[in-house]
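Checklist before submission:
- one chain only
- standard amino acids only
- sequence pasted in full

Submission:
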Amino acid sequence: MESLTEAAEPEPGGRTARPPLVREFLLVAGLFLVYKLGRRLANGHTGDAFHNADHVWSLERALHLPEEGTVQGLLLHSESLVRAANTYYAAVHFPATILLLVFLYLRRPRHYVWTRRALAVLTAAALALHLTFPLAPPRMLPAAHLVDTAQVYGPSVYAAKPSTDSMANQFAAMPSLHFGWALMVAIGLIAATRSRLRWLWLAHPLLTLLVIVGTANHYWLDTIVAAALLGLALMVVRMPSATPAAPAALRRRLLPAPAHPATTEAPAAARVPAPWSAAPAFRAPPDALSASDVLGRAPIRIPVQVSHTPGSTSVAAAVVASAEPVTAEPVAAGANR
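Returned file contents:
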């Protein structure tokens, strides 16, 4: 049975070092604190937030987007369903993102660095919009005629009055980081795993979309802007390249170790002695000359009569005579007769 989090095969010939744990913990915690403090700075712009909400609501109607009340009407058919949606909104957003980062850090370090950077870029862009474009959520807009499901049915993560909320900025609806982070969770897991069921992770952002709209915490345009910002972040942030593995280390991983280590010395039967190597018996070199060859190459030819009698010195005398510059007179025909 396949698992949704079955890690993909490592890249051949490459590896990625896992970032130091303490440094990554401090970095992620620091980015989260900066984001929370930035959202707090956007508090207090009540007039601008409601003015912008009227414009967003009118723009959605001009674009013929479905009304948020249609989704909320489906939830209101069951109180249990409404409570489940409120719980999902309050309890899944941060834990799902943290679990994604932990999983990628342990199993896929290269995808972890890529995902963390993309989330940082997305969150920074969202924070800039929160500061420059405060927006009241649809549950606060009188023209929307929507129910604040968290306050009516619970549980709620927001205070009853935005002015008394010291933990969150309720006028930071545009863009929806609930949807942006959920979409990045799905993209990160799809990219980092190889299971055929990995596409089911898209159910997480889809369910998040229905929850944030049905509970009247976000407009449709909030999710569209979040998806566009994430797309831009993924265009800017590239996947880190794997570090090429050393050739020797790669060979050790790919090739099995031999049963008997190879030796540089050849077997005795395969060793051939050199032509002039010492041997128990003397070996004449292949280009050695015989006595007749020496005589045949002598510069002066002296006609001699070779005697086949043992002990005769005629051959030796001929050799000596050929080495001395003497002139021999022709032998008269029949002299020895």
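Reviewer check: The CA atoms of residues 84 and 309 lie 129 Å apart.
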